[in-house]
């Protein structure tokens, strides 16, 4: 699977660790930055680039990383067609996919160890969308809103 990944300075080290893990697992990892550590970088640029790529490649998924993951989730969700969810447990990572068909996961690098982050990402990647009518209906409502702007 193609996995898009992006991080600001706070998520830079975790991005490297996750990219190595995903590559070793056979995924194609596309890095949207940051490409070097810069304490003054701005996460929106990277997260918007990632979101656009995920929307253009519907079979792909994305991972955005920051200190808390909150700003990165907000930025990614500005891209029409992105459904980014902040995950802080394996349960929230699974529900993001199962109930919301999320195509981007946001993680806080300052909130989780590398092993915890890997578990969150693996849960997210391996959980299928339930396809239940109520979940499809809710996603369709959001899509109609995006298209109607």
The spatial strand order of the largest sheet comes to 2-1-3-5-4
Biggest pleated-sheet summary? 5 strands, parallel
The topology string of helices and strands comes to EHEHEHEHEHH
Shape: globular
Cα(first) to Cα(last) distance is 32 Å
Extract low-pLDDT stretches. none
Percentage of residues in strands: 15-25%
* Annotation field: number of helices: 6
Rg of Cα set: 14 Å
Helix amount: 40-55%
Arithmetic mean of pLDDT: 97
DSSP E strands, number: 5
Structural class by SSE content = alpha/beta
Q: Can you describe this structure?
A:
Helix content is 50%, strand content 16%. The chain has helices spanning 12-24, 43-56, 70-76, 90-100, 114-126, 133-148, and strands at residues 2-7, 28-31, 61-66, 84-86, 104-108. Strands 2-1-3-5-4 form a five-stranded parallel beta sheet, sandwiched between helices. Strand 4 (84-86), helix 4 (90-100) and strand 5 (104-108) form a beta-alpha-beta unit. Helix 2 crosses helix 3 (70-76). The model has no long low-confidence stretch (mean pLDDT 97).
